[in-house]
Amino acid sequence: MSEQLTPVEIFNRSAEEGRRRLDQGNLELVATGFVAGFTIVFGLIAMAVVEGLTGPVAGQASELFGAMAFGVGVVFLVIGRAELFNENFLDPIAAAFVSEEGGMPRKIARLWLWTIIFNFIGGGLMVLVISVEGTLPTGAPDVLKQHAEHLAESGNWASFMRSIIGGALVALLSFLVIASRDATGRIVLAYIVGVLLALGPFEHVIVSVLHLFSGWTHGAAITGGDVAR
Predict the structure, then answer these.
(1) Distance (Å, rounded) from C-alpha 133 to C-alpha 116?
(2) How many Cα neighbours within 13 Å face the side chain of 196?
(3) Cα–Cα distance between 129 and 6 in angstroms, integer?
(4) 103 by DSSP, 3-state: which?
(5) For residue 38, which of 90, 84, 89 has the smallest C-alpha distance?
(6) Which pLDDT score, from 0 to 100, does residue 220 have?
(7) Mean local confidence (pLDDT), 174-198
(8) C-alpha angle with apex 179: 112 to 27, nearest 5 degrees?
(9) Domains and CATH numbers, the chain
(10) pLDDT band at 1; cut points 50, 70, 90
C-alpha cells in the first residue's frame, strides 16, 4: 500500500494543479467550463430518472436512490477534469500563495469568471434539450419540477446555510482528489461527495440554478427572485 501524502505534499500538489488551471488558454477554459455545465446536468437527469422510476414502489427512499444516481455526474466531472465553479477555488489560491509573479488576482478572477459563465451556458443548453416533451422517461420531469419548487420554497437563512455546506463539500472534493494517489480513490471520493450533495440536498450555485431552470422548463413556478436568492 502506498504511503499517505503529508499535508505539505498535498499543498504542493494543489499549488501545481492550481498553476495548470490558471495557465489554461481561453479555448481550454471555454471547453472545460462548458463540459462541466452539461456534465452536472447528466447527474440531475440520472437523479430524476431513478427517483421517478423507484418512487411508486420505494416511497421516500427513492430520494436516496436518486442521490446515489446523481453521484455519477460528479464522478464524470472529476475524471474528465472539467472546471466546475467553486470546485476550483482551493488549487488556484494555493498556487497564488507560492507564486512570486504578479497578476495572480487577475488570473484567478479570469478563471472563476470564465468558469461560471460557461458552466451556465453548457448546463443551460443541456437543460433546454431535456425540456422537450418525451425526452425524459415518465416521472422524471415531475421529479425535476418538485425538487425545483422545494428549492424555491426554502427560507433565505436555510438556503444560505445549505449553500455554505454545499460549497464546502465541493471545495473539499478538490482537496480530497489531490490527496488521493490513484484513479480508483478519486472516483470513490467524487461519488461520495456527489451523493452527499444531492442527499441534503445542499445547494451549490451552478447545480442549484440549473436545477431551478430544469424545474421551470417542466412547469415549476420559479421566478427570477428564486434564482437570484
Answers:
(1) 28
(2) 15
(3) 45
(4) coil
(5) 84
(6) 81
(7) 89
(8) 30
(9) 7-228 (1.20.1080.10)
(10) very low
Q: Where are the alpha helices (DSSP H) in the chain?
A: 7-22, 26-58, 62-79, 90-98, 104-130, 140-153, 156-179, 183-199, 205-217, 224-228
For residue 201, give the C-alpha cell.
Answer: 440536498
* Cα atoms found within 13 Å of the Cα of residue 3, Cβ hemisphere only: 5
Q: How far is CA 12 from the centre of its chain?
A: 24
Sign of CA dihedral 150, 152, 158, 162: positive
Number of Cα atoms under 13 Å in the Cβ half of residue 111 = 27
Residue 2, pLDDT above cutoff 70: no
pTM value? 0.88
Longest CA pairwise span in the chain (Å): 59
Instruction: Provide DSSP, 42-64.
Output: HHHHHHHHHHHHHHHHHGGGHHH
The number of beta carbons lying within 10 Å of the beta carbon of residue 15 is 21
Contact between residue 212 and residue 226 where contact means Cβ atoms under 8 Å apart: yes
The angle subtended at Cα 71 by Cα 66 and Cα 74, nearest 5°, is 140
